[in-house]
Amino acid sequence: MANFRVRTPARLLFWRAVRFLYLLWGGMILMRLASMGQMRFPAWIWDWPGFASKLTSPVGKGLLFGVGLAMALAALKEIWELVDILLLKLLRDGRRER
Fold first, then answer.
1. Is residue 4 one of the residues assigned to a domain?
2. Which residues 6+ apart lie within 8 Å of 82 measured at CB?
3. Is residue 1 part of a domain?
4. What is the model's pLDDT at position 69?
5. 10-65: per-residue pLDDT in tens?
6. Could you tell me if 69 and 24 are in contact, meaning their C-beta atoms sit under 8 angstroms apart?
7. Is 70 inside any structural domain?
8. DSSP state, 69?
9. Does the pLDDT value for residue 3 go beyond 60?
10. Domain presence at residue 44
11. Any alpha helices (H) in the chain, and if so which ranges?
């Protein structure tokens, strides 16, 4: 039999909240920087001028904006599931009290 770790609801909610904040913060920062044209890349990227020029082109900025948008949408899905888990837990606790 497989050994499955039992996750407590508090730990599950904590990791979901951390993942939500990471996705939301990262997505918003990436979208803002890509849309304003303020992307700063590490020095090792400039060792490959062809790759660096593609990232700084409008298509590259659009791709980075798309990745940021996908992260923001994933954060929306994550908070939706987090609220769903909390509501189900509250409803189950309310039914037990009856």
1. no
2. 13, 16, 17, 20
3. no
4. 94
5. 788 888 889 999 999 999 999 998 888 888 888 888 888 888 888 888 998 899 99
6. no
7. yes
8. H
9. no
10. no
11. 9-36, 49-56, 58-97
Contact between 55 and 64 (Cβ < 8 Å) = yes
pLDDT digits (tens, 9 = 90+) for 66-91: 999 999 999 999 999 888 888 888 88
Nearby residues of 28 by Cβ (< 8 Å), 6 or more positions away: 68, 72
State the amino acid at position 11 in one-letter form. R
| Rounded Cα gap, residues 64 and 55, in angstroms | 8
Token pair for 29: 């920062």
Residue 80's domain spans which residues? 10-38+59-97
How open is the CA angle 12-13-15, to the nearest 5 degrees?
Answer: 65
pLDDT at 72: 94
CA distance 98 to 95: 5
- The confidence score (pLDDT) of residue 24 equals 93
Tally the domains of the chain: 1
Backbone angles phi, psi at 42, to 5 degrees: -65, 165
pTM given for the model: 0.73
